[in-house]
Amino acid sequence: MAPSVDRQGYWGRPTSTLDWCEENYVVSFYIAEFWNTVSNLIMIIPPICGAIRTFRDGLEFRYICSFIGLTAVGIGSWCFHMTLLYEMQLLDELPMIYSTCVFVYCLYECFKQEKTISFFLIALLLFFSISVTVVYLQWKEPVFHQVMYGALVACLVIRSIFIVTWVYPWLRPLCYTSLGIFMLGFLLWNIDNIFCDSLRASRQTLPSGVGVVMTQFHAWWHIFTGLGSYLHILLSLQIRATYLKYRPKVKFLCGVWPMLHVEPQKSS
Length: 268
Known about the structure:
Helix content: 55-70%
Structural class: mainly alpha
Strand content: 5-15%
Number of strands: 2
Distance between the termini: 60 Å
Largest sheet: 2 strands, antiparallel
Order of helices and strands: HHHHHHHHHHEE
Low-confidence stretches: none
Number of helices: 10
Oligomer: single chain
Mean pLDDT: 94
Radius of gyration: 20 Å
Shape: globular
């Protein structure tokens, strides 16, 4: 993590159990980690558009919750990196658990009849979420949260690979693109943690714009994991829509950003 040589700003001394590699209050007096904050926009704006599109298509509420969950993570992460306060850290980390539980439910229930609800899986995921929350509030160890989050992601990876290997192999490109982008973000997150001193030294010698792009790896973690998570929701939606015999089509907003438009099955 970051050395304790940072400036003081609007939100005072950090109270969070984590302080990342970006120097505090360098860009703005009001934002502790500027680039780590604004990079969360990718987890806020596109999922809101996805939720609206999903609602208009009349799809199941669980997928609207998936997009809203990703937005909640982005907002929580924005607040955390803006303030570096412990309460805001929880607003970032706990929604990561809750939203991923929604992802797990969607992916593991994708081959059920429409409007069916698995109360057992809901109860299991609620128990997991509550247990993680209670333990983490008492035992303020970030590694515990990271391991629990990693376990949920592993469940998604295993299930996704199974589906695109044995059920819908034509969805492999979307699945592996989502996974690859997410893992690239995870790699950069680790580099940012392990080589923080070297990255900070590099930022002192590089031009400011170049330094941001080449060394702010935690911000890139937000961008890549936000995009990877968004693509995972599209994958989950595409699997579900295909099973229900709808006609899913990927459309690009402004010719750039992928969105899934689902049309009902044509009546025969």
